[in-house]
Amino acid sequence: MKARILVVDDQKDLRGQIVMALSDPRLTSEEYEVLQAGDVSEVKQLLNGPEVDVVLLDLILPGGDGFELLSTIKKKWPDTEVILMTGQLDGEDKIAAAVEAVKRGAFHFLSKPFAWANLIVTVQRALEHKRAKEERRTLREELVASGGIRPVFKSAAMRAVIAMVEKIASSEVSVFITGETGTGKEVICNALHALSPRAKGPLIKVNCAALPRELIESELFGSVKGAYTGAHQDRIGLFRQAEGGTLLLDEITEMPVDTQSKLLRVLQDKEVRPVGGQTYYKINCRIVATSNRNIQDAISGG
Question: Would residue 281 count as lying in a domain?
Answer without folding.
Answer: yes
